[in-house]
Amino acid sequence: MSDSINSNKDTIKSLFGKIKYKISGKISDEATEILEDAGAEGTAYFSDFVTHCIAGTDASETDISDALDLYEIPAITSDWVTYSLKCKELLPTRAFLPRDDLLFSGVNAAFSQLTVDDCKKCWALLKFFGGKASLKLSGNSTHLVIGKTSGEKYEHLLKVPTNIRLVTPDWIIDSYRAHRRCSEANYHPRLLVVPQPKLDHQSTAHITGFADADLPSEENESGAAPRSEILEQLKLRMPWNQPSAATST
């Protein structure tokens, strides 16, 4: 058993010690070790005492339907066991249904250029609706969820031919809100709108040091101050036209 499991024996027993489960198909070795170390009771048949049906690869559809409909107990994947241990609490079973018709079923996303908080939110939505997520990009990845048009993963996918879709986190959120997968093409990171800093538009008076009130107010017959008079006033106020101050000895 791994060191991480050995260091959590008390947690394992408190979480899974009272569970009575039936396995359908083949579950992960890690989940098997956790359940055995917790002292959870496994059985080959359903009964009124079974609390969970853990479905692995090649799970029987009959077992899953019997668990849900006949015995009214949760049917879950073995990920429920491993992730519950990582979170140190029994996670909602709805997030680990052994179904392939959920919103993000078949999605295996990798994350890049996201904050820790954004990673957690994206992982939760993907996992709850049948998807998978990882920080690593692999041959099994179907999507790269990225927050910026930069980074090693992004540059790598631009250079090599691949079927991996590049999307921003908004693709996950908008798909969830729409109850359907939105088109990935509309969420490519190159379409991100980067906020531009506001420019401080300064008046000419601020730049030259002359306030508008200092300009001549006299107007000609057309209602405007003579241009020549304005220029003369400006010339007189230039530093080189000012009388030199007396220097101290």
From TrEMBL:
InterPro entries found in the cross-reference section:
BRCT_dom, BRCT_dom_sf, CellCycle_DNARepair_Reg
CDD domains for this protein: BRCT_PAXIP1_rpt2 (cd17710)
Question: BRCT domain: which residues?
Answer: 11-98, 125-189
Question: In which domain of life is the source organism classified?
Answer: Eukaryota
Q: What PROSITE patterns does the record tag this protein with?
A: BRCT
A Pfam family for this UniProt protein?
BRCT
The molecule here is called BRCT domain-containing protein
